[in-house]
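Quiz preparation item.
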């Protein structure tokens, strides 16, 4: 199927061509807004509540008052999937900006937020999840409040672009050598069966998949240690992986050209991928592990 170009705005559903904002829009001019990217499998949202909770936390942190209840947003997002007749793997991008007003850094008291959401088909990154990805370390030059999912992504964009130009799939960000997260993912190191990741403080995004990984570790008896690791620790890593709503649980097989473990996805990463597929109710025939069996046959 092809997804129709219907957009959910603060007023109603409109066709993409009808969507017009004034140039003086604070999201466009200042990056003054927040957003979410939500995963859909076979037409169903995955971790919708977690994303909506984070959207509200982000908006509140920058003094945007969302003019809907969480329930209303969820119902309207379900409506967006229904109107677009989504029955495939996809994502919803939703954005709330402070609104439209004459350009001035300070904002008017009565400003009304602008809201839109659209849905786009996006297949799972099967080959990358099976083989793992190379990543490139980059300095984390972002501000102190990265727990807010704000539209200001220039440092993330530049880090990812640098990674891409050097043949890598993700940038691993570090502050003075301490690994914080990826340009669009959370990052983990596995050593002696224990998973290490940066604590969920204000300087990283509290990933929805990260939250689930913590739970999967608990369920599987894998120690989950929120102790940040250093670039220098990577040489001792048995495995590494990143997580996000788009990358799911993505094995990392090299950092700056240096191979992690034996250069293939490790045992702990595979167990977590399996737990993810169960949690997201991914059908057996679409499972990574089915693909592994097919490849081996
Ligand atoms: C900087 C950053 N960290 C982490 C994540 C992972 O968040 P989630 O698991 O909620 O998709 C993202 C997702 O886009 C991100 O941009």
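Solution:
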């Amino acid at each position: 199927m092809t997804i129709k170009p219907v957009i959910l705005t603060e007023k109603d559903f409109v066709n993409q061509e009808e969507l017009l904002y004034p140039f003086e829009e604070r999201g466009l001019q200042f990056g003054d807004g927040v957003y979410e990217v939500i995963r859909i499998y076979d037409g169903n949202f995955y971790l919708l509540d977690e994303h909506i909770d984070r959207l509200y936390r982000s908006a509140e942190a920058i003094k945007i008052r969302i003019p809907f209840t969480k329930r209303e947003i969820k119902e309207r997002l379900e409506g967006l999937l229904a109107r677009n007749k989504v029955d495939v793997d996809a994502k919803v991008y939703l954005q709330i900006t402070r609104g439209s007003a004459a350009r001035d850094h300070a904002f008017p008291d009565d400003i009304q937020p602008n809201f839109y959401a659209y849905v786009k088909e996006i297949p799972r990154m099967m080959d990358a999840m099976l083989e793992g990805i190379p990543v490139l370390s980059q300095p984390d030059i972002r501000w102190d409040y990265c727990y807010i999912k704000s539209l200001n992504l220039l440092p993330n964009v530049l880090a990812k672009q640098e990674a891409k130009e050097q043949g890598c799939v993700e940038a691993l960000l570090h502050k003075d050598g301490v690994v914080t997260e990826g340009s669009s993912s959370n990052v983990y190191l596995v050593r002696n069966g224990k998973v290490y990741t940066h604590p969920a403080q204000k300087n990283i995004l509290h990933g929805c998949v990260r939250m689930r990984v913590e739970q999967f570790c608990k369920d599987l008896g894998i120690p989950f240690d929120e102790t940040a690791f250093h670039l220098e620790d990577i040489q001792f890593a048995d495995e590494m992986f990143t997580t996000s709503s788009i990358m799911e649980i993505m094995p990392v097989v090299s950092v700056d050209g240096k191979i992690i473990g034996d250069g293939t996805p490790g045992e702990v990463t595979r167990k977590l991928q399996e737990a993810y597929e169960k949690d997201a109710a991914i059908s057996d025939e679409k499972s990574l592990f089915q693909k592994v069996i097919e490849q081996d046959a």
